[in-house]
Amino acid sequence: MKIAIIGKGGHSKVIQDLISLHSKLKIVAYLDDKYEELSRKEDIFFGPIFAAEIINDMFNEVKFIIAIGNNKLRSLIVNQLKLTNVSYVTLIHPTAIISTSAKIGGGSVVMAHSVINADTQIGEHAIINTASVIEHDNQLGDFVHISPNATLTGGVKIEDGVQVGAGATIIPKMKIGKWSVIGAGATVIHSIPPFCTAVGVPAIVKNNQLIEGV
């Protein structure tokens, strides 16, 4: 399968390494707005993000992955490109442990040593980062980012656009409202409203945040 990576920063390096572990996947393009025009170096194209339509027409079976850690930017790019859901690939690291009853949406990435347990549902364009644990019966929306070593215990609901910081823990049956941020190392023992930042042990809401364009 041919893969076009959208984004050429730090997160895309991790995505590139993940792709290299799958012998049937081949990177054919990097798209980032640091490039002003579409060009080709050996067998790989480099160009701005809007060139995705050209790449899509150029290759019959190309799939895209948005390799950008920022949830809002991933959302904006998806809305701007208007590619179909089947245009995006779901990438799973071979060391990840995933229940057969779990479901993962298109464009999502599951990194090394992550665990996703029974009947968990993960939306589209999500990032399940290194060594994070998603226990049974969790529901994760679109454009979420679960950072390294974070733990979601059973029955947690994570709405669209949420960022859960590295090493954070969310106890059972909590709800994190859309586009909220849980700070690194926080322990969430109460549900968190939308558009908030919560930090500490136990986590408390520090401020409300306005997210434009979502």
Describe this structure as you would to a colleague:
There is one protein chain. This protein has 214 residues and is an alpha/beta fold. The chain folds into 2 domains: 2-87, Rossmann fold (3-Layer(aba) Sandwich), CATH 3.40.50; 91-200, UDP N-Acetylglucosamine Acyltransferase, domain 1, CATH 2.160.10. The chain is 14% helix and 31% strand. The protein has 3 helices and 24 strands. The protein has an 8-stranded mixed beta sheet with strand order 6-9-12-15-18-21-23-24, with helices on one face. The protein has a 6-stranded parallel beta sheet with strand order 7-10-13-16-19-22, with no helix packed on it. A 5-stranded mixed beta sheet has the order 3-4-2-1-5, with helices on both faces. α1 (10-20) links the parallel β1 (2-6) and β2. Its EC number is 2.3.1.89.
Features:
24 strands; alpha/beta; 31% strand; 3 helices; Rossmann fold; UDP N-Acetylglucosamine Acyltransferase, domain 1; globular
In short:
The chain is an alpha/beta fold. It is built from three helices and 24 strands.
